[in-house]
User: What shape does this take?
Amino acid sequence: MTESCVLCGGPLELALDLGHMPLVDGLYDSAEAARQAPRHPLRLCRCRACALVQLDATPPRDVLFPPDYPYASSVSSGLLASARAHAGQLIRDRRLGRDSLVVEAACNDGYQLRWFAEAGIPTQGIEPVPALAARCRALGVPCDAAFFDAAWAAQWTPGQGAVDVFLGKNVLAHVADPVDFLRGVARLLAPEGIACFEFPYLGNLIAHGQFDTIYHEHRCYLSVTSVQALLDAAGLCVQRIETIPLHGGSLRVTAGHRADACEDLRRWLACEHDRALNTLPALDALQTSFARLRTRLPEAVAALRAEGRNVAAYAAAAKGVVMLEACGLGCAEIAFVVDRNPAKQGRHLPGSGLPIVGETRLAEADMVLLLAWNHADEIFHEQRAYTRGGGGWIIPLPELRVMAPRRS
Ligand code: JHZ
Ligand code: ZN
Assistant: This one.
């Protein structure tokens, strides 16, 4: 291990080596170029000193999140609905109005801030991908095309005063210097302001063997214990902890300057301690799931192909690239990948080179590997015509399930 802990600088120990993986959101215009995508070591580690679970190294942020970064949150109606509900809840609970200010880091295509803007509440987005930042502005959300960090916070002079609500959804786990990021948040936040962070929960990664959530964009794999330590290093305190069903099971942690009594915090810390969550034995579950699926999934696909089934995949998701690469599945086994996001269609997945196509092509398959298993309910509902027509599904996680096609 060459790198040291992003929180305390302590030494890292290896928990799971996923080999060399391409950058999961780096799509290519040709299959040939996609197959030659550069591969980088992907190693899940744990700090021996503070127990934070993290990768030992990642490429720089402008390589991980380049101008053609394709992920757009609004493509998923579940995410959009959850963002709308959260905005409504915050507007009510915090009595937000025309004098308030809501700031979101990595605000993507505006799927979250738009609901505040529609309610007449001043917003500010910060989003490094220029095309996504432009989409925010088109929705009436001021947005700076930049990476949020302490330096950004230091140079920003809001016309509106200090920040009442800061949102960081799926970004705290993505930054190489989370303490710097949180210091930036602390600097902006009003004395009574709150910051909400969402991230896939390490407890669920372990409980459900979600090894495909490990990729270079995710530097840290957070538990309540680790988030509390990160917040503490930046002078912030946990005020509330909620579980939310997004992305395979996430946590929403609310933090602020004031140490409001948070009874939940003690309970969560005790529970994580009892589960020995941030230890190598607990992380072994990811190794087990990785080893099991990389044998069983290719076997399941081979058996279906031997029956003459045309196998496709659904979702050019980041986690899908990890699943395909881990299992050695590519163009020889899978015909194409369907994805709703127009920015992904016509391009090719890094590594396998699989072509990404629109939903109309689903009818050509009689078996579909669901790579975005986290959106299973929404996708099954949207694609019910395919299933009614006798099409089958392979769901890799949380348990490998094969729903065989009903046509022969
Ligand atoms: P989805 C991304 O991971 C990347 P991914 C990122 N690093 C991150 O942290 C997590 O999100 C939070 C498509 N889709 O959400 C849209 C349909 O085609 O599981 C997406 O391309 N039809 C920022 O990429 C993909 O599937 C549908 O009906 O693993 C889903 O990707 C739905 C619901 C989605 O995240
Ligand atoms: Zn550490």
